[in-house]
Write a structure and sequence with these properties.
The chain is of the alpha/beta class. Helix content is 42%, strand content 17%. The chain has one domain: Alpha/Beta hydrolase fold, catalytic domain (Rossmann fold), CATH 3.40.50.
Length: 272
């Protein structure tokens, strides 16, 4: 469905179900050079099992209008505006990679309006090498190849006959990049990840349970790089859950069912 967010047409995938204000809501936030489609399996399941799902295309990405966010903080403001536009008073936030930082910052700002926080493939700081930043800016196809090699632990997970996650991800990246002719969303997204400095403060300000979904073979956001956030979350007394999956950075397609079940089970955790 489409919503008007900050005066711009914004697309949210709802899992094939109409939005129902009586149901709990989960907002899914994609990472750099992705769109709502990376959450297809997880969102369709939840939409058919009692949840509203809003898998958003961030501004300036694919079906959503507006200026692509240049910082995590700017994107977090967008998430707050999205909830207002949808008339949602309280929601779970689920984010992958860059989207995990956006979800984290939004949860810190929205406090009790966020019931659960799911951080998939997260790290803090989420530093991006200068070589990759330069390639994203000047040779985006080279950078896209680099990212898809680093991100994957397998080329053909059990998604069904003929599935090829590497090729599908390459095609998605090309499509997202081509969807915005005004700005290089690849470089802008990576720069936002690299520049974000508020992670530990934000996790201390979050008031809801937190789930970390980490890939044991993740070379983009290695599990060790999430330990600081995990420690800060525990120090501040929150309920913290961890799902470690034997895959790389794209948990949603490399282990789609395990990722789904980790999110599904966590969303049954009582919120603060």
């Amino acid at each position: 469905m489409y919503l008007d967010v900050n005066g711009h047409k914004t697309y949210c995938y709802t899992g094939g179900k109409p939005f129902d204000a009586a149901k709990p809501t989960a907002v899914f936030i994609h990472g750099v050079l992705n769109d709502h489609s990376v959450w297809i399996l997880q969102t369709r399941y939840l939409a058919n099992h009692g949840w509203n799902v809003l898998a958003v295309d961030l501004p300036g990405h694919c079906k959503s209008e507006g200026d692509a966010p240049s910082s995590v903080e700017e994107a977090a403001d967008f998430v707050a505006a999205l909830l207002g536009a949808a008339g949602v008073q309280r929601a779970a936030l689920v984010g992958h990679s860059w989207g995990s930082l956006i979800a984290l910052e939004a949860a810190a700002r929205l406090k009790e309006r966020v019931s659960h926080l799911v951080l998939v493939g997260t790290a803090f700081p989420m530093k991006v090498s200068q070589a990759l930043l330069d390639a994203a800016l000047n040779e985006p196809m080279k950078a896209l190849n680099m990212v898809n090699v680093f991100s994957r632990s397998t080329l053909a997970p059990p998604l069904g006959a003929g599935s090829w996650v590497h090729g599908a991800s390459m095609a998605l990246g090309r499509r997202v990049l081509a969807s915005n002719t005004q700005v290089n969303v690849f470089h802008r997204g990576f720069k936002a990840c690299d520049s974000y400095a508020n992670g530990e403060t934000a996790i201390s300000q979050v008031t809801c349970p937190v789930l970390f979904v980490l890939g044991a073979q993740d070379q983009m956001t290695i599990p060790k790089a999430a330990q600081g956030l995990i420690g800060k979350a525990r120090e501040s007394g929150k309920t913290v859950s961890i799902a470690s999956l034997p895959v790389g950075h794209h948990q949603m397609s490399e282990t789609p069912e395990a990722t789904l079940f980790a999110i599904r089970d966590f969303l049954q955790t009582p919120s603060a």
